[in-house]
Amino acid sequence: MRVLRDEWLPRRLKRELVGHDARTGPEMGWASKRNGDWLRVTVAAGFDAFLTVDRKLQHQQNLSAFNIAVVVLEAKSNTFADLQPLMPEVLEVLPTAPRGQATVVRIVTLAD
Fold first, then answer.
1. What is the 3-state secondary structure (H, E, C) of the chain?
2. What pTM does this model have?
3. 73 is in which domain, residue-wise?
4. How many domains, in total, are found in the chain?
């Protein structure tokens, strides 16, 4: 799968996306794009999924207008130490994440 990683994700997280072609916007030459533009160029470039920590994205954009799966990571912070434990579930949901909507991945605690 081709996965565009949010530029706010740690670079080391790319190594956790085993078996996927994972890139960032800056790697693609897409600096300073807004979310709507970002999603349009991502779809046009043939990406299958967008991996982000932007919890507001699904409320700010009409994701159903974009033929791409959006996977939102929810952790205490966007550090590698906090996000890395989410990666096994990310790898599990990526192949079946529905396009045009957000799939949220978070660590479930007893309080949840």
1. CEEEECCCCCHHHHHHCCCCEEEEHHHHCCCCCCHHHHHHHHHHCCCCEEEECCCCHHHHCCHHHCCCEEEEEECCCCCHHHHHHHHHHHHHHHHHCCECCEEEEECCCCCC
2. 0.90
3. 2-106
4. 1
